[in-house]
Design a protein that fits this description.
Largest sheet: 7 strands, mixed
Helix content: 10-25%
Shape: globular
Number of domains: 1
CATH architecture: 3-Layer(aba) Sandwich
Number of strands: 9
Number of helices: 5
CATH topology: Rossmann fold
Oligomer: single chain
């Protein structure tokens, strides 16, 4: 069996955007990649982290040159750490598309990705853009993991998540536990999960630690949303 592949992107320097700079995103993402069993495939940060790396070419109005087929959708798990909103994650430069990953540009799982983590505020807010348009986003993807609320700039959440995955926790429980380890009760974790006939994503684990479901069928999938208090 081929080794599982792990890709990360992170942003701390937001330049002239209205977003304040962050301090721990690099440490968080790199600790996740270094601790998780698998192959580190890409690590793009600050001005080298681009929204188009998550976007499908031709999808959405502003996206003629998406490169998810060689980055976000070309690994088993992709992890982003930085600012976000109910629109999606925000990057530090806007010279590679818009600087934001809009829901209509995101099509994950039609190549490789099983799991996408957006460690950023509000990306998975109930009623947000990803929540309301999840059927288009999930094209074989199993989970999107993130937050319903604001979250804090943690350096340790990524490695905690990786440790739980390596230990055989289900993907959903690994994320919940990592969030509870690093956040207070005012923060709410969230995830979107896809299933279809013959899939068992609810109890799936990291590739080297247990059982992984086959990809959900986008034509017949059911997508579940859950959020809870840290």
């Amino acid at each position: 069996m081929a080794e599982s592949e792990i890709g990360i992107e992170w942003v701390q320097d937001y330049h002239s955007w209205s977003w304040p700079d962050l301090m721990n995103c690099k440490a968080e993402a790199e600790r996740f990649q270094n601790r998780l069993d698998g192959v580190a495939t890409f690590n793009w940060g600050d001005d080298y982290a681009w929204d188009e790396d998550f976007e499908q070419q031709g999808a959405g109005f502003w996206n003629p040159a998406g490169t998810d087929d060689i980055y976000a959708d070309n690994v088993d798990i992709v992890f982003y750490s930085g600012h976000g909103s109910s629109i999606g994650p925000h990057f530090g430069v806007s010279s590679h598309d818009s600087g934001e990953v809009h829901h209509d540009e995101l099509r994950l799982g039609d190549k490789d990705a099983e799991w996408a983590v957006f460690d950023a505020c509000f990306v998975l807010s109930e009623g947000g853009k990803y929540y309301n348009n999840c059927w288009d986003i999930f094209q074989g993807l199993h989970f999107i993991l993130g937050f319903h609320t604001v979250t804090h700039d943690s350096a340790s959440r990524g490695e905690n998540f990786a440790d739980y995955l390596n230990d055989g926790e289900t993907v959903r429980n690994a994320w919940i536990k990592a969030c509870q380890d690093t956040e207070g009760s005012s923060t709410e974790w969230a995830y979107l999960r896809a299933d279809s006939s013959g899939t068992t994503t609810y109890n799936e684990q990291w590739i080297s630690a247990g059982t992984v479901s086959k990809d959900p069928d986008p034509a017949t999938q059911t997508i579940y949303y859950l959020r809870g208090t840290c």
